[in-house]
Description:
- By secondary structure, the protein is an alpha/beta fold.
- It folds into 3 domains: 2-132, HUPs (Rossmann fold, 3-Layer(aba) Sandwich); 133-168 and 202-287, Serine Threonine Protein Phosphatase 5, Tetratricopeptide repeat; 299-468, DNA Cyclobutane Dipyrimidine Photolyase, subunit A, domain 3 (Orthogonal Bundle), CATH 1.10.579.10.
- The chain contains 20 helices and 5 strands.
- The mean pLDDT is 96.
- The protein binds flavin-adenine dinucleotide.
- Flavin-adenine dinucleotide (FAD) is lined by residues 224, 232-236, 239-240, 274-275, 277-278, 281, 341, 344-345, 348, 366, 370, 372-374, 377-378, 380-382, 385.
Amino acid sequence: MTAVIWFKQDLRLQDNTAVAQAWHNHERVVALVTQTEKTWQKHHWAPIKRDLYERRLNALASELAALGVPLHVINAESYCQVPACVLQFMQKQQAQQLYFNREYPLDEKRRDQAVVGWLQQHGIQSHVSDDLLLVVPERIYTGQGHYYKKFTPFYKRWLAVLAEQGVSAPQHLPAKGPPIGLPEKVTLFGDKVSSAAWRADTQAIHAAMEQYYHERLHDYAQNRDIPALNGTSALSPYIENGSLGVATLARKLAQLTPDFPDGLEPGASTWLSELAWREFYQHLMWHVPRLSQGKGFQEETDAYPWVNSEERFTAWCEGRTGFPIIDAGMRQLKATGWMHNRVRMLVASFLVKDLHLDWRLEEAYFMQNLVDGSFAANNGGWQWSAGTGTDAAPYFRVFNPERQSEKFDPAGQYIRIWVKELADVPAKHIHAPWQWLQQYARANPYPKPIVEHSQMRELFTQTFKQVKNGL
Ligand code: FAD
């Protein structure tokens, strides 16, 4: 009997629960991807993310073909049409069983429930697995049966469950038949921007992971906050489109100590905690539907009187705010589709607490530009930065861009890469170069700061306090 595997954000064969189950239970397997252009647009899929997704689909199609399994990409336009399209596909393939991995944000949850319901009405069975996370939301509750609102206790519980569960062993996938001819190239709809700087084939992605584990993991704890260094894994685009599974990543860490997830040295244990942040935000999506509806976790903060300023927004997007570390980050994003985590935190805080612009606009701008755009991680990161989220940095703790720049980019190496106008400014002046430029380089086009940090901080904290107190 034929089974269909429905791929979404899990574009891989290794460590893929739905794949392993379908493979094990069925002689004939067919792979399916639903292209949902309208919903992807509504969800602000970045052209660079779409390009990487397309390249990855082609790599996956070749891998499947070598194992005798065809991959079909069908056009469903939007999530609403997915149930009917999947049903039609199943009937055409004469398949009675569908296998897929569940996703956690609201639209995806509803889409998946609708598919299961439609197929059931037509006598077709769905097998829904957990694969995107190391620990599923249902396993992490407080003693009172609530979900965790703070990361630290969540993380403690998450580690305990992980220790109990262990990490699964890799599974072998034998060929399902003789190789089939190379599939026709998959071309997705919509605008695309080259993602050539990122890898699409499995071997190259695994090589990037191995390189990170061998060369950078050990020093992760001390290097991860320095944007001029290649100190983080840069695996986020692969984790997001599922070409790297979290089980694969965890197994590599588990090989470092028999006491996993305890017993890791600082680099590895800090890195594991970042994977837990990712899971924390996915769990929140599952538990709190309003996060998927453009609302703040702290509902009262939705009343903040955000400023509507095209001028400030454009200066921020284009990296022309006059604050070098902010401008460097925004230019890195525009040029590469990726930004260092420390700088993501700084530009997000600046946008909200210095420019007083609504974090939701910029949350969308990030999604429209990031190669690793993840609804849950991005929403979590923005709400954390804006002070509207669960584990929010207190609203009165406002990053000072100049001090942060001195601390994390002391010689201005990162700034010099992205803000070419400042390449010759001495390190002492590069974090706030305006006076130096006035004196020594009058023709330099680098802009004056568009706001005064301490004034804007003051205004933000006062207003936010009133909003939180319902005044
Ligand atoms: P590493 O430091 O090597 O971390 C390993 C992995 O852990 C990452 O690849 C990612 O999957 C996960 N991770 C790390 N930090 C976080 C975090 N704070 N929250 C959630 N997951 C994390 N991450 C995304 O994957 N997609 C996004 O759209 C995204 N938007 C963000 C927006 C803002 C405003 C902020 C502050 C953070 C955002 N992050 C996002 C989190 C983080 O910045 C990136 O995951 C990280 O920079 C990716 O680089 P890396 O792979 O080298 O990470």
